[in-house]
Amino acid sequence: MRTRLLSLFSLLLCFALSSFPPVYAQDGSDKPPTGMTIHVVQRGETLFRIAQRYGTTVEDLVRLNGIRNPAALAVGQRLLVPSPPVPEQVSIGIPTQYTLQFGDTLFKLAAAFGTTEAAIAQRNYITNPRQMYIGQRIVLQEGSESAQGIKTGWIHRVQHGETLYHIAARYSTSANLIRLVNRLRRADLLYVGQPLIVPSDENGVPLTDLPVPLARFEMTPAEQGRTSALRIVTLQPTRLEITFMGKSVTVFSDESQTLHTALIGVQALAEPNIYPLRMVAALTNGAQRTFEWRVYVADGGYRSEAITLSARQLDLLNPAITQPEEERVRQAVSAITPRRYFSGLMGLPCAAPVTSPFGTRRSYNGGALNTIHAGTDFAALPGAAVYAPAAGVVVLAETLTVRGNAIIIDHGWGIFTGYWHLETLNVRPGALVQAGDVIGTVGSSGRSTGPHLHWELFVQGVQVDPLQWTRQSFP
Asked: What is the pTM of this model?
């Protein structure tokens, strides 16, 4: 009898001990069992993020660690997690870095780089694809699932009533090719909204995953104090309205209303951050579609400097003197001329070295760094020629209090250039100038400490780095 009682007690004890969670991950006193590892919870981590990192599930973590409240993790808490399997080949595919563009989705990236949506999401900790943004840097293993990704072609979303043969006829390809590329078991099993890759030859359009009516959408990087260009192609005549960083952006379209261009000037003092770009596409049949993307505005990398003004120069900071002139200049650069005069790279306005670049953060007499150098200064000798960097129409040629003898040229499409502190003005308002024409000479007029040329460039009223236009051609 006593032997039976001892046996029963031993069984109950074993059962009770087996019902308790393991303690390896909590006190660190023992090594974890084979196939397990210990993770120390960091600030901001969740069970979902930890499970994603190790390729396991929240349910497994809860079970292994006896967690009663999955939302109540403590920083420094030690968790037992399954060790991720080590593949036979340590590296499959080519490690690649990529910057997200318009038309990039997980589906498109997986197709273009020969990998899977899950692999991209896991490697880049993407838990919500809607939070991806233009300019985001991601890493992936190119070719981990197939020998070669599909770089050109279209991503077609299946519409109601469409068959694989209808889709193939639309893109002048074969239904069998679409079936093989998309690994479809049966050609007749499609569902509405299903994304299908329709490949083209290597000279075809770049693969994108854009909503109808957009066929192509390109945007150059957005940075503080610089110009960003948008190039958009629509499948049918469309009128576009764009808003970025809270400001309406003028869009210029060709006669067919299918090729659209916009130039955006990013404020130099804008915070590096993610900003929404909203678009309304109005079709000829009266239908409207609204889209929104998240765009990252990068830091411009500008330096700072402290400037000390003498007593007689303090009126440079007096709003009563500077504000009326600011309004005069703002009025002169506010028009948006539909005709485009500029083309290709802009030339330099003066044959002299740059002494002060655009965008430098400035503090005056020990104040805050809350102003910028809004142009580029050239250390030219008095009387040196000042040239028009591109074709345009002179809209201002007069003497101003702070800027001295000044000229402003309208280059079309909301692009203006300004020239301050000149000695002579060789043009009058209304004059049409060509690139290379002499418009004035260098001086030290207005509030200036010495002879130099101060050159500014405006994009739809926003002051940006003019030297960017001498290195980069805009459409």
From this structure: 0.76
Q: Which residue has tokens 């503080």?
A: 224
DSSP string, 229-279: EEEEEESS-EEEEEEETTEEE--EE-TTS-EEEEEEEPPTTPPSEEEEEEE
Same domain, 161 and 248: no
Relative orientation angle of helices 58-65 and 47-54, to the nearest 10 degrees: 100
pLDDT at 98: 95
Measure CA 345 to chain center. 23
Do 417 and 363 belong together in one domain?
yes
- Quote the domain boundaries for residue 350: 304-470
pLDDT digits (tens, 9 = 90+) for 257-279: 999 999 999 999 999 999 999 99
Tokens at 437, concatenated: 């024409």
Q: What is the mean pLDDT of the chain?
A: 87
Domain assignment present for 17: no
Percent of residues in the chain assigned helix, strand, coil, to nearest 5: 20, 35, 45
Same structural domain for residues 439 and 314? yes
Supply 190's token pair: 């499609």
Q: How many domains does the chain have?
A: 5
Which CA distances in Å does 367 have to 307, 332, 390? 9, 30, 38
